[in-house]
Amino acid sequence: MHTVNMFQAKTSLSKLVEAVESGREKEIVISRHGMSVARLTSIARQPVQKRIGVAKGCFVVPDDIDAANELIASMFAGEAP
Question: Is the pTM of this model over 0.85?
Answer without folding.
Answer: no
